[in-house]
Amino acid sequence: MTVTQITLVQGDITDQQVDVVVNAANSSLLGGGGVDGAIHRRGGPDILADCRRLRASHYGKGLPTGRAVSTTAGRLPARWVVHTVGPVFLTEDRAERAGLLASCYRESLRVAVELGARSVAFPAISAGIYGWPLDDAARIALTTVADEVAGGRAGEVAEVRFVLFGAEVYGVFERVWRALESEV
Ligand code: AR6
Fold this sequence. Notes:
InterPro entries: Macro_dom, Macro_dom-like
Bound molecules: ligand AR6
CATH class: Alpha Beta
Pfam families: Macro (PF01661)
Number of helices: 5
CATH superfamily: Leucine Aminopeptidase, subunit E, domain 1
Domain Macro: 1-181
CATH architecture: 3-Layer(aba) Sandwich
Organism: Kitasatospora arboriphila
Oligomer: single chain
Number of domains: 1
CATH topology: Leucine Aminopeptidase, subunit E, domain 1
Distance between the termini: 22 Å
Protein name: O-acetyl-ADP-ribose deacetylase
Low-confidence stretches: none
């Protein structure tokens, strides 16, 4: 059985040599700002072409929040991009939003496992333009992935890498991760 490591790095997700890069997309799948913009810019037009095909075949009304789909990674040093749609903190239903954010991580990991990925890089989904408070976004991200790993649902994935953009986001994830580790 594959042992899955959870790692945290500060950096740009478009630099990561991993099998799967997860994109914090929006339901249109047609690109945007933040990490989504960076992935499409660096990965090139093949990613958008795949997204358009997915829209035409399955997601004419948009990819629902909390779900995930895969495309080529184009020119990124990765094999696939898994696009997921995080909840918008202020406008999503309060009772449902944390479950939806957790679902982004679970569903993205599930798609990565189905693809046979051995390494997966996640950004801090919803913690930018979608306005999720960083501490809470980090706690949901880390506990959800840790639960999936502990539950044996990480397949052949040997590394789940959180790629945190900038010292502040990295610092929060690291602090939350240490606090969670000291609880077990
Ligand atoms: N590598 C890693 N993390 C990054 C990068 C990068 N290159 N660039 C930004 N981040 P955001 P959201 C961080 O806003 O909140 C888009 O327009 C960023 O600092 O990218 O889920 C989509 O199309 C933050 O910590 O995603 C949607 O409309 C984290 O990635 C909307 O934004 C997430 O910030 C999604 O908003």
